[in-house]
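Pasting as-is:
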Amino acid sequence: MHTNENLITTPVTEELLRGALDVERTHHGLLPHRLPAAARRQIPDEQLATAEAQPSGVRLTFRTRATTVELDTLPTKRVYRGFPPPADGVYDLLADGRLAARATVAGGNVREITDMVTQASELHEGPAGTARFGELPPGEKEVEIWLPHNEITEVIALRTDAPVEPPAPRDRKVWLHHGSSISHGSNAAYPTEVWPALAATAGGVELVNLGFGGSALLDPFTARAMRDTPADLISLKIGINIVNTDAMRLRAFTPAVHGFLDIVREGHPTAPLLVVSPVLCPVQEDTPGPLVPDFDGGTLRFRATGDPAERAAGRLTLNVIRDELARIVARRAADDPNLHYLDGRELYGAADYAELPLPDEVHPDPAGHRRIGENFARLVFAGTGPFATATR
């Protein structure tokens, strides 16, 4: 980490962060969280503890005339024992909404996953580093630095070659979204190209992304966090992780969905609320979980291990969940005209799979994220979509 003594140092405060529900002060700096402290105290496993601390959709926002910006951070990166480390997470800098520069931070902490099934891990500590952005557009501008969606990131210091001011208030609607690893950004290349970020840009809204890899499991503490978060538009992408983990049967799933919706509605009784079923995932369409990693051929893929014959006994598959979500929403919409349903296969279906297959059989590649984001914007934010009139 190298400090340019000619730059101005500005303390990083909560006022400069968007997209986080809480900020923790650590020994190094600020650690954004996407769940509040009360929810974090109820997290049952390392999977969600890691996912909510990875700042998908979180950005540092300020106004400045600076053409050089440096951001010191301490990343925590995840690697799987026996596999090459992933590429360093990317920081996207936008100037007045347009991508102006990208940077990475080498080094940092490394959390080594020693068991893919249990997610057991070991932490190896490393040094902080600097994301440096130069030759930015001249003149006064609003700068957004989107933090890596796939690395826990402690923000330490901000330096610029011109003074920094807090961002101007925005009158854009706030879109609060909850989903699984695809919403979190698995296999997306850049933080601004995770599908909810692409859809938010197209829809002209402010994103709060509660996509948690492997952890969209209808947890009541997540519902309460959504209930208590200011929002104008709300979407819930439900189902894939419940099937992946074989977390419950149909008898438990139906009241769990009702309970989650009831809690969200306590804080947002009339906001447009969209329930989205899973996108196409052939390995789980009619085969129950649990899902397990498969390393045959040296490439990570996933396969479902349940018995399709057990659907009659309440085992869940994606098709079972889609039918049940459509039924739940239709029943509730009689008393809740702002509740809507979208079949996830309209975002990514059979034709999309044929053109843009899922590399690991579960997660889309960067082109797949773009396809999902474009389809969501078209179906939800545009025309007669459920969020269209609210954003005009």
